[in-house]
Hints:
The protein has 650 residues and is α/β, with parallel strands linked by helices. It contains 21 helices and 22 strands.
Amino acid sequence: MFATAPSTVVVVADTKSPKEWACGSCVYLSVEDQKCLSYGVVDVIPYKAYTRKNIGYLWAIQQGATKVFDTDDDNLPTGNDIILESPTGSVVGYRSDNTTGKSVNIYSHFGRPDIWPRGFPLEEIDIRRPVSYIPEYESLPGRARDVLAPPMMIQQGLADLDPDVDAIFRLTQGQELKKATFCKKSPSIRLSPGTFCPFNSQNTLFSYDAFWGLVLPITVSFRVCDIWRGYWVQRLLWDVNGSLGFTKPTVDQIRNAHNYLDDYKDELQIYAETSKFIDFLSTWKSRSTNLETRIVDLMKGMAENKFIGDADVDLAKRWVKDLKSVGYVFPKVLRYDPLAVKTSLDAVQQPLIAQKSLKLSNDALKQCQLEADVDPTMSRIQITPIPEDPSAKFKDILLVVNFNHPIYDAIKPFLSIYEPYFPNIKIYGPKVPADLKDVVTEVFYDEGYTGYRSLVHAMENYPNYSGYLYTNDDTVLNVFQLAKFDQDKVWKRVPDIATELHDRSKAPPGRWSHWNERGSSKMWKDPTALTAKQRQRIATFTKVDGPADISAYVDAVYVPGRISVELTDVLSRFLKHRVFLEVAVGLALVAVEPTENWASWKELYLWTEERDRWREYLQPGVGMLHPVKLMKDPQARKDIVNWIETVNVV
């Protein structure tokens, strides 16, 4: 069974088992054989219990085992070898998208976010939540590799056909499990310290340094014992510089018949206490410097918090003593340092590298979906890619926020929406009260007629940004969509010269009242307002050999830093003549940058009764939407945040 060494199958009997049994080279430990063993655990492990396996673990260790493969009678290996995966072939998963959550649904990584493993905290079930990645093992710097990707000491292989899920799933969605399969092209994954995922006793390989973690608790139910073991073992793995890994399916599970309602009752402790158990383990500490004592200390803490009974504390003491008696050498304690983990995570979370890891899983899933024998349900499942962290994407972008009116109560909800994504924000507005002078830069009050003066001020006074994203306080930005745009281009819908152009030698099109503004007339009469090259760019776009105005709504626009100096110069001259905002900015952008270099995003402007139904217009692909008055709709902030976090990027 093992590729690198001979293997022995150990069968642990119970009272229902025959007194004698033989099958090839299998070792059969009958009940009488077990009584003859000098293990202290034999005296306290109940009969008719799954936990009789503890005796078999000790026997294997005593015989000199270097690895223990923990399995059940309904798992059929699909290959000849079960090996401990090389760390270089894995990626590293962790939790970062929700500071209150600490668990990873490993099934999602292998193409099935619609299924969760038995023992996964119900509060954290979310099909849309992605698995977060840091770079592949080989690309991690040395120190980060030690901290974030310690050696894989325990490896859980997934099971195809009937994977291990809880009774709630089977009772409500059991039809989804018929011949379910996982993506076999997804890379193996290990979990960084601080991150949990339940693992069972059905297809799990323990290395020598993790043998101490084989013991199954005896005071909890059959459906809980291996899950509880998996959780507490993960916590102590962090203290011995070890990690838990998961690999593609290596067995087919042909599940024995179960009564799902009985399973549900058996799993009630999992449903009720898993999140609390994880919280306890995350904060648990021990002063002991040896693992043997820490195991007992942890069991005492678990018993004090009612996760297990006192008999398991006694079992742990006997287990440790038995391990020593059979010659097992415990690994050294190095102690888990959560601050070092956080520091290392912060250092390596480079979006481009993280995307590389994500691409591995997504490409693998696509390949799996093309295979003829794939589970049909997989064709409609996709690993949700972690969006590139916008705060990293926008780290050198200045968000310029313009308030046309001194309604500054909207500052707090506005910042609560966008501060997580934009590390650099400057707010401008008129009539700034004294208590906001440090927050808002005051500009001339003209009800937004020349609102672009805020953009001019920002580009003049903060010249070293690679780009400037100008917006109004009542504009909704689709942050993750914007993160996909080329920051070397202008982000603005290209004006339609058929309807948004006024050849000033002719009557204006339509009835827009701003076509004949005095400011524009004065600007065109000023020979210094535009250079010859800028006038030529306008003529090329408008196909008009003379003065021509462009209408362009400007409640959000992005300006790449490379054109900011020239654009500042043009807009400053427009300000001198008080050219109206919706003529000035579009015309200035055309004068400075050919529209071939614009990312023509989707803009939505709502009028009359549409404004009350703005939520209907929050659609995929929208770059910006205007207007949404944050202070008039108490639910607006929450709904905008939810849309930003969940809308599909196109």
